[in-house]
Sequence to fold (403 residues):
Amino acid sequence: MKSVLAERKTFHPQDIEQRELPTAAGRAVRELAREICSALDSHTGGTAQMARTLTAPEILEQIDGRAGELPDDVRIAMRPPATTAGATIVSRLPLTDEEFGPTPPTWHDAAAWSGEPARRASSFHLDIVMLLLARSAGEPFGWHGQQGGRLVNNILPSPGHETEQSGASSATLLSPHTEDAFHPHRANLLVLACLRNPDRVGTTVSSVRHTELTAAQRKLLSSPTLPILPDVSYGRGHERHTATPLPTLWHTESSGGTEDLTIRYDPAYTPLDDADAEFRSAYARLTAELERVCVTAALTPGQMLLVDNDVAVHGRVPFTARYDGTDRWLKRVNVRLPERRRRAAEADENGYGQQIVAPFRSDRAAPLATGGAVPNRAGAGRGPATAGAERDTADDRGPIERP
Fold:
């Protein structure tokens, strides 16, 4: 499915919320991660096997049981974005470009390196850091078919994927999108942490609450008209599932304005040609507005971008990958905010058979419901660390992903 977005390299920046991890809090996160790694090594004689997915019971117990030991400043910094921009930059996570070695050529290599004793002190250690931070925000989860079910994903350019609409691309604009927009159990919050970005490649964020649409356009886009299909990274097999029409926009209250507007948007995988001219016109206006209000965040090592996946869409500007070990490298974690409720109708969606890996989920069977998108977090260190999946069948997911 083609994207309706132009490959624009210039954007209209707006202010974005800025936070900092206090020095003591950043140090505490890294020190706790080191303690957990040491405890795991002592208990198992090595973490290489567990590093594959980070879902071994020993790791889950350590993360869930000890995240609550972190200073309150960590949880304050990692709370969901507090402004209508739907995004926040958190700075001063203590790390340096030099400690991680070269940027891997693929996520497979990044995952393999995290299990090597010589690299464990940096790569695997930072994966534990990411889970501690994400657990402070809510409930980290992954996808069975994404990067081998790993809870922490590596986002980096890969040879042969330069022009795809995926996180492994580089030479093309990665169109703004809701992460995993096709699925009812998509993340409420994305955490993107920068390890390396020497070319200052920008991540783009656009808030639906900054857009200007007419009441008639919002009404059209709030009607379940077209499905959103799984993107290229999910491989084949989704065709056997019913494609359910979804609303692009909806209100969490009854205001009718933009202050409580939420979004589910992925134009590259929405069959717009199947809609009538009036709907396509409203969708085109939304697309233009999301471009108009776009913010570009060029992350530096130690910075994290928190994206409210219910309010903001995100993408990436084009860049030229060198594949020499110095390219942009991010870590990503999907986070569920258990106190945030979605539309009741989403409970009936099939999710195209995609399963989630939800070891920290406190209530796997909780129904979706209409209600406000409340910016609350899960309590770190509370609730059982039980692994589970949301659907009965799973498709093969490809070797690439959307950031």
About this structure: The longest helix spans residues 23-44. The chain has eight helices and 14 strands.
